[in-house]
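Record 1 of the preview.
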Amino acid sequence: MIAKLVIPRTKAREDVDLAVEHYTHEAGADVAFGFIDALEQAYTFIGEMPAAGSPRWSHELNLPGLRTIRLKGFPWIVFYLEFETYVDVWRVLHAKRDMPAWLADVDD
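->
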């Protein structure tokens, strides 16, 4: 099986940038690099097995096909949709965030 391309939207990239900046300033470069590694592992996983993500938020937000995966070792959740040839990453959000509020911020 060939892995699908994982394409983060602008907001997802901004989410990641803010998280890396936060971890760099609050916990140091090693923790920030750990976050990046966990994110890369999550992206690899959803590219290879996109249907394995949880559909929980799909039901709660009434967005058919929306799936999530939590980063290992970090309280962050990747929100994505699977398409025929790629995985569309909508957001990467802290687990304690008000999830319905992010819908107003989805772009492209």
